[in-house]
Design goal:
Elements: E1 2-3, H1 11-17, H2 28-36, E2 38-43, E3 48-50, E4 58-64, E5 67-71, E6 74-79, E7 85-86, H3 88-93, E8 100-103, E9 107-113, H4 123-166
Antiparallel strand pairs: 1-2, 2-9, 3-8, 4-7, 4-9, 5-6, 5-8
Helix pairs in contact: 1-2
Length: 167
Amino acid sequence: MIESKYLKDTIHNIQKLFAIPSLKKIETKNLGKMLRLSKIREYEDKEIIIREGDTDPWFYFLLSGRIRIVKNSVTICTISKMGEIFGEMRILDKLSRSASVYAEGETICLAVNTAATDRFSSDDEAANFLLLLYKVFAEYISIRLRLSNEELIETKKQLKILTKKIK
Protein backbone atom coordinates (compact mmCIF):
# COMPACT_ATOMS: atom_id res chain seq x y z
CA MET A 1 0.00 0.00 0.00
CA ILE A 2 1.11 3.50 -0.77
CA GLU A 3 -0.41 6.09 1.55
CA SER A 4 -0.48 9.90 1.39
CA LYS A 5 -0.25 12.21 4.37
CA TYR A 6 -3.52 13.56 5.77
CA LEU A 7 -5.13 15.71 3.10
CA LYS A 8 -5.56 19.45 3.33
CA ASP A 9 -8.96 21.08 3.10
CA THR A 10 -8.15 23.16 0.03
CA ILE A 11 -10.77 24.25 -2.50
CA HIS A 12 -9.10 22.02 -5.10
CA ASN A 13 -9.39 18.93 -2.87
CA ILE A 14 -12.96 19.76 -1.85
CA GLN A 15 -13.96 20.07 -5.52
CA LYS A 16 -12.56 16.57 -6.12
CA LEU A 17 -14.84 15.20 -3.38
CA PHE A 18 -17.88 16.60 -5.18
CA ALA A 19 -17.20 13.97 -7.88
CA ILE A 20 -18.19 11.29 -5.34
CA PRO A 21 -21.98 10.88 -5.72
CA SER A 22 -22.72 10.36 -2.03
CA LEU A 23 -20.88 13.57 -1.13
CA LYS A 24 -22.52 15.94 -3.63
CA LYS A 25 -25.16 17.07 -1.12
CA ILE A 26 -22.72 17.74 1.71
CA GLU A 27 -21.75 21.30 2.56
CA THR A 28 -18.27 22.48 1.57
CA LYS A 29 -17.21 23.06 5.19
CA ASN A 30 -18.08 19.45 6.08
CA LEU A 31 -16.15 18.11 3.10
CA GLY A 32 -13.20 20.12 4.37
CA LYS A 33 -13.56 18.40 7.75
CA MET A 34 -13.59 15.01 6.06
CA LEU A 35 -10.42 15.84 4.16
CA ARG A 36 -8.60 16.56 7.41
CA LEU A 37 -9.29 12.95 8.48
CA SER A 38 -8.49 11.44 5.07
CA LYS A 39 -5.59 9.89 3.21
CA ILE A 40 -5.30 8.52 -0.31
CA ARG A 41 -4.36 4.84 -0.32
CA GLU A 42 -3.22 2.94 -3.40
CA TYR A 43 -3.30 -0.85 -3.49
CA GLU A 44 -1.90 -3.44 -5.87
CA ASP A 45 -3.82 -6.42 -7.23
CA LYS A 46 -4.89 -8.89 -4.50
CA GLU A 47 -3.53 -6.65 -1.72
CA ILE A 48 -5.61 -6.71 1.45
CA ILE A 49 -7.38 -3.46 2.36
CA ILE A 50 -9.38 -4.70 5.36
CA ARG A 51 -8.69 -7.88 7.32
CA GLU A 52 -11.62 -9.74 8.90
CA GLY A 53 -11.42 -9.48 12.69
CA ASP A 54 -9.43 -6.21 12.78
CA THR A 55 -10.67 -3.23 14.78
CA ASP A 56 -9.17 -0.28 12.90
CA PRO A 57 -11.09 3.06 12.67
CA TRP A 58 -10.96 3.51 8.87
CA PHE A 59 -13.72 3.50 6.28
CA TYR A 60 -13.25 3.96 2.55
CA PHE A 61 -14.58 5.53 -0.60
CA LEU A 62 -13.58 3.67 -3.75
CA LEU A 63 -12.00 6.20 -6.12
CA SER A 64 -10.84 3.83 -8.85
CA GLY A 65 -10.35 0.14 -9.40
CA ARG A 66 -12.33 -2.70 -7.91
CA ILE A 67 -12.61 -4.45 -4.55
CA ARG A 68 -13.67 -7.94 -3.53
CA ILE A 69 -15.37 -8.56 -0.18
CA VAL A 70 -14.72 -12.03 1.26
CA LYS A 71 -16.13 -13.83 4.33
CA ASN A 72 -15.06 -17.37 5.27
CA SER A 73 -13.28 -17.73 1.89
CA VAL A 74 -16.52 -16.93 0.03
CA THR A 75 -16.75 -13.84 -2.14
CA ILE A 76 -19.76 -11.86 -0.94
CA CYS A 77 -19.57 -9.24 -3.67
CA THR A 78 -17.32 -7.07 -5.77
CA ILE A 79 -17.56 -3.31 -5.99
CA SER A 80 -16.27 -1.22 -8.87
CA LYS A 81 -18.45 1.90 -8.83
CA MET A 82 -16.54 5.07 -8.04
CA GLY A 83 -17.68 6.61 -4.77
CA GLU A 84 -18.97 3.40 -3.18
CA ILE A 85 -18.40 3.20 0.57
CA PHE A 86 -16.99 0.17 2.33
CA GLY A 87 -15.73 -0.56 5.82
CA GLU A 88 -18.51 1.49 7.40
CA MET A 89 -20.12 -1.32 9.43
CA ARG A 90 -17.17 -1.43 11.86
CA ILE A 91 -17.58 2.31 12.44
CA LEU A 92 -21.30 1.98 13.16
CA ASP A 93 -21.38 -1.07 15.41
CA LYS A 94 -17.86 -0.90 16.97
CA LEU A 95 -17.45 -4.66 16.43
CA SER A 96 -14.49 -6.23 14.67
CA ARG A 97 -14.37 -6.33 10.87
CA SER A 98 -16.97 -8.79 9.57
CA ALA A 99 -15.21 -9.55 6.28
CA SER A 100 -11.94 -9.04 4.44
CA VAL A 101 -11.60 -6.69 1.48
CA TYR A 102 -9.07 -7.17 -1.32
CA ALA A 103 -8.02 -4.96 -4.21
CA GLU A 104 -8.81 -6.40 -7.63
CA GLY A 105 -6.23 -4.83 -9.90
CA GLU A 106 -4.76 -1.44 -9.05
CA THR A 107 -7.19 0.27 -6.68
CA ILE A 108 -7.25 3.76 -5.18
CA CYS A 109 -9.33 4.69 -2.12
CA LEU A 110 -10.03 7.69 0.01
CA ALA A 111 -9.47 6.34 3.54
CA VAL A 112 -11.14 8.26 6.38
CA ASN A 113 -9.86 7.84 9.93
CA THR A 114 -12.79 8.29 12.31
CA ALA A 115 -10.47 8.10 15.32
CA ALA A 116 -8.59 11.25 14.24
CA THR A 117 -11.27 13.60 15.52
CA ASP A 118 -8.61 15.33 17.60
CA ARG A 119 -7.83 17.13 14.34
CA PHE A 120 -11.05 19.14 14.91
CA SER A 121 -11.08 22.32 16.97
CA SER A 122 -13.89 21.20 19.32
CA ASP A 123 -15.87 18.19 20.50
CA ASP A 124 -19.00 19.73 18.96
CA GLU A 125 -17.31 19.96 15.57
CA ALA A 126 -16.26 16.30 15.82
CA ALA A 127 -19.75 15.19 16.92
CA ASN A 128 -21.47 17.09 14.10
CA PHE A 129 -19.10 15.57 11.58
CA LEU A 130 -19.71 12.03 12.86
CA LEU A 131 -23.48 12.58 12.67
CA LEU A 132 -23.04 13.60 9.05
CA LEU A 133 -21.07 10.42 8.34
CA TYR A 134 -23.76 8.30 9.95
CA LYS A 135 -26.34 9.87 7.64
CA VAL A 136 -24.24 8.95 4.59
CA PHE A 137 -23.74 5.43 5.99
CA ALA A 138 -27.48 5.01 6.63
CA GLU A 139 -28.29 5.84 2.99
CA TYR A 140 -25.79 3.27 1.71
CA ILE A 141 -26.88 0.59 4.17
CA SER A 142 -30.52 1.11 3.17
CA ILE A 143 -29.64 0.60 -0.49
CA ARG A 144 -27.59 -2.50 0.29
CA LEU A 145 -30.34 -3.95 2.49
CA ARG A 146 -32.88 -3.53 -0.31
CA LEU A 147 -30.53 -5.31 -2.73
CA SER A 148 -29.93 -8.10 -0.18
CA ASN A 149 -33.69 -8.52 0.25
CA GLU A 150 -34.13 -8.88 -3.51
CA GLU A 151 -31.33 -11.48 -3.65
CA LEU A 152 -32.86 -13.36 -0.71
CA ILE A 153 -36.27 -13.47 -2.40
CA GLU A 154 -34.72 -14.73 -5.64
CA THR A 155 -32.70 -17.37 -3.74
CA LYS A 156 -35.82 -18.58 -1.92
CA LYS A 157 -37.68 -18.86 -5.24
CA GLN A 158 -34.83 -20.89 -6.74
CA LEU A 159 -34.66 -23.10 -3.65
CA LYS A 160 -38.40 -23.75 -3.86
CA ILE A 161 -38.06 -24.75 -7.52
CA LEU A 162 -35.12 -27.06 -6.76
CA THR A 163 -36.92 -28.74 -3.84
CA LYS A 164 -39.95 -29.44 -6.02
CA LYS A 165 -37.70 -31.09 -8.64
CA ILE A 166 -36.12 -33.35 -5.98
CA LYS A 167 -39.48 -34.57 -4.64
